[in-house]
Amino acid sequence: MTWTAWLLIGAALVFFMQCGFAMVETGFTRAKNTGNILFKNFVDFCIGCVCFLFLGFGLMMGVDYVAGFIGVPNLDIFGCFETLFHGDPASADYAAATSTAASFVFNLVFCATAATIVSGAMAERTRFLAYCIYSAMISLVVYPIEAGWVWNSQGWLMNLGVGFVDFAGSAAIHTVGGTASLIGIIFVGARIGKFERDENGKVIKVNVIQGHNMTIGALGVLILWFGWYGFNGAAATEEGQLARIFVTTTIAPSVALLVTMIYTWIRNKKPDLVMSMNATLAGLVGITAGCSNLDIIGALVVGVVSGFLVMGGTWLLEQKLHLDDCVGAVPVHFLNGVWGTIAVGFFDVNNGLFYSGNAELFGIQTLGLVTIVAWTAVCMTIFFAAIKYIPVMVKYKTVKPAEVFAYAKTWNGLRCNPEEELVGLDISEHGLSSSYPDFVPSVPSYDGEGEDVDISAVKPVAIDLAPANETKYTKVTIITAQEKFLTLKDAMAKIGVTGMTVSNVMGCGTQAGKIGQYRGVKTTMRLIPKVQVEIVVSTVDPKLVVAVAQKVLDDGKYGAGKIFVTGIENVMRVRTGETGVAALTNEPEPVATK
């Protein structure tokens, strides 16, 4: 096998990582957004392919490279095919054409990796069109220019002193994707229900919004690890180097996972699966820059630090900065991309500070990293601001900053409307009722906070109840849309309802469901995912329960829900045998005795 053939096999492994990213993002988010996430992982590669073909590849790897900073756009890849079809296989031109074609595919899949990192961070609330525009921008301009600095033979970072070392892309790919993710989640804002705020807007609680399928998430992590052997190893030029790369690419993620597993086990009394899976990816990101230049000791250190970085970074992002990163892209890719790049300055076996005593490489790594982060941050700030605010200017016909920012709080080009976000992007963006139609309904996680509804002026409604001598308790059954549940739950708590039973159900009223589409064909969804809430009350006025439920659920649209009121003869608490009101009253947890 020639090394060009191995390069192309490695490129295929990197392409397969798109599947891994899709699975991780899908598993770590809610089922109602599955189709949207899968579609984004298709479209960012396909948009990136066309953009990279016509402009990005020339900017990155062009032979005519201006002052070490940017290539002159060209369409040499088209000319290569003329040579590959009709040229002499033994000629130098044919060999050059083969190299150019292989280089295009190889660099394209790396470009796609940088682009797709953002998908998971901004998931569940970003407009599909906005993501398409972002994919074009990062593939046209952001990635090709900075990657050329690192990997074009004329790039200024490659030729600076002993040379900037980023063998497979901790800086050029993962730090870029992580930086874009950080800028993106700042612009798009947090998902509804992620943070609870007081009347002054201060965050008082961070809610967990759980992913819906850890099986798919774990499969994605393992696919990414498998593909990473091609990611790091494809550019190897001899067998010994390839063997070194495979060893370090195995050690770092293994150590990172163990560090995270042990730490969370000690701290939380149970090992954390999701954090440990992210630690695996963090170790892979951390070793990517120095996979060919670090020895086993260096790989071990990279893995240990990566494990702690992903945990600390996640805590910092959510608990202190109050930024919502659905899958942990910023801790995994940004923080560990930075760490992996800096680690080369310490542990490079030839020029690292701890091996040579010379700080030159460390300085070059730091300078290159700062430059790449600054370039990406400036570009993505401009692009995300344009995507978010230009549609507002057009729609409301204003360019006054105060007015634009005010309008953008309720509608903008980057983020979906609250109604669209709550029902899920599968249906609101793609008309897809469920990504699991033959399995279970697409249901949300109910951890979080709903919309705050003022119920202080609500009066009990007139409803006919059974005579008092026939029933002592009342059951109120509420069937409504899933996205209304959090608000309903909070409102019930305000009036003293302390318990409820919640079920996911399917159903529709006289409106006979909504109209969706699948493969371009309209489908009538006779059964719509709903939530059924059962509340049995004795001391709380059931008329007030009904009134509050109506206040919360009534939005003037079809499908707001139904409320059923029935009498209950009696109730018993199974553990104690208590009946009546005592069985419905909250009691303290029993104290364990030795």
From TrEMBL:
Q: Name one GO biological process term.
A: regulation of nitrogen utilization
Tell me the gene name. Answer: amt
Q: Which residues cross the membrane?
A: 6-24, 45-67, 101-121, 128-151, 171-190, 211-231, 243-266, 273-290, 296-317, 329-347, 367-387
- Membrane topology per the record? Multi-pass membrane protein
User: Which keywords annotate this record?
Assistant: Ammonia transport, Membrane, Transmembrane, Transmembrane helix, Transport
Tell me the ranges covered by the Ammonium transporter AmtB-like domain, including all copies: 5-393
Q: Supply the name of the protein.
A: Ammonium transporter
Species: Candidatus Coproplasma excrementigallinarum
Please give the Gene3D superfamilies that the UniProt record associates with this protein.
3.30.70.120, Ammonium transporter AmtB like domains (1.10.3430.10)
Report the domain of life of the source organism. Answer: Bacteria
Q: Does the keyword Cell membrane apply?
A: no
Where is it localised?
A: Membrane
Concerning Pfam families, the annotation shows: Ammonium_transp, P-II
Q: What family is this protein classified in?
A: Belongs to the ammonia transporter channel (TC 1.A.11.2) family.
Q: Which GO terms describe its molecular function?
A: ammonium channel activity; enzyme regulator activity
The keyword DNA repair belongs to this UniProt entry's keyword annotation: no
GO terms under cellular component: plasma membrane
Which lineage do the record's taxonomy fields give for this organism? Bacteria, Bacillati, Bacillota, Clostridia, Eubacteriales
